[in-house]
Amino acid sequence: MSEIKIEDFSDDRKLTNEEKKVLKSEAKEILEKKNSKNSKHSKHYESEEKQKRQEQTIWCIIKEKFSFEKF
User: Fold this and answer.
1) Is the CB of residue 71 less than 8 Å from the CB of residue 63?
2) Closest Cα to residue 33, out of 22, 43, 25?
3) Number of domains in the chain
4) For 12-25, what is each residue's pLDDT tens digit?
5) Integer angstrom CA distances of residue 23 from 2, 20, 32, 40, 42
6) Would 51 be classed as within a structural domain?
7) Least enclosed by CB within 10 Å: which of 5, 38, 39, 70?
8) Greater confidence, 1 or 49?
9) How far apart are CA 32 and CA 39, in angstroms?
10) Are residues 71 and 62 in contact, defined by beta-carbon separation less than 8 angstroms?
11) How does the average pLDDT of the chain come out, rounded?
12) Which strand (E) or helix (H) includes residue 17?
């Protein structure tokens, strides 16, 4: 089996303006999708953390009010 060299895949031609526009729009689309996924994930994570803190606060109030060590 012959060894494949990187040079075999080199493309020295210049991109046309139309090709550049297509590549830029594709890259922008990919970045927007990635950013929207990240923001959804972070919002979900933040809401989970907020819910956990609220639950802990509620349990602390219940323990103080009824002075139970274990519920």
Assistant:
1) yes
2) 25
3) 1
4) 567 778 888 888 88
5) 33, 5, 14, 26, 29
6) yes
7) 70
8) 49
9) 10
10) yes
11) 72
12) helix 17-66
The residue written with tokens 């989970």 in the block is 48
Q: Fill in the DSSP letter of residue 8.
A: G
Contact 23, 15 (CB under 8 A): yes
User: Whole-prediction pTM value?
Assistant: 0.36
**Residue-number span of the structural domain to which 50 is assigned:** 18-66
For residue 42, give Cα distances in angstroms to 8, 39, 46, 49. Answer: 43, 5, 6, 10
The separation between the first and the last C-alpha atoms of the chain, rounded to the nearest angstrom, is 71
